[in-house]
Structure formats: structure tokens, C-alpha cells
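Backbones bend. We report:
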Amino acid sequence: MLGRTFTADICFSSCAGDYAASSRLTALRGTDGRTQMKVGDKVRLVAIPDDIVDDAEKSIYERCLGHEFSVAAFNDLGYAELQIEAITGTSGDKIHVSHRFLKAL
């Protein structure tokens, strides 16, 4: 089975000013230009986005809650990509999540 990608907390208008849109983002910068998070940083998923309506997808996030991950990349919205293969057991599985739901370690 090919890996699955789950993205939650999609907010185009309210988040647009927080992120530099780029398919090659290597760091998330705040509105003050300071780096908040970069590829390779260790983070913990500390909350689950409330916009998940699909029960199966919500279950994935619940299983990841409290676990530590390394930031693998950032998507065009600036959401951190976390590889979740160790949690789901499926090669290539990943989630994209806003920095608001992550704690830097």
C-alpha cells in the first residue's frame, strides 16, 4: 500500500500572513521573520486539530498524539510534515499539521 497523507487545520485566509508559500520551505518563520521551526527539529504532537471530520483520519491523529517526531518538510501552507510510519505501520504515511499543535523539544 502506498503511503497516505493527512492534512488538518486548513485555514487559507487567517494563516496566509503567517507563512511564506513555497514548495521548498525548509523553515517556518514567524511574522517577525524569526525562525520558529526547521526541517530536522524534534517536535511533539500536543493537540489535535478540531477541523477533522473523518473518523478514520481523526483516529490517526489521536494515535500520534503525545509522540515525538522529526520535522521532515513543510507544505505550501507552512504546515510541518511528520512521518508517522512507526505509528501506523504503513510505509510512507505522513501528516501535515500547523505549528500551533506542536511543541518543540
Notes: The beta strands are 5-7, 27-29, 35-38, 42-45, 68-74, 80-83, 94-97, 102-104.
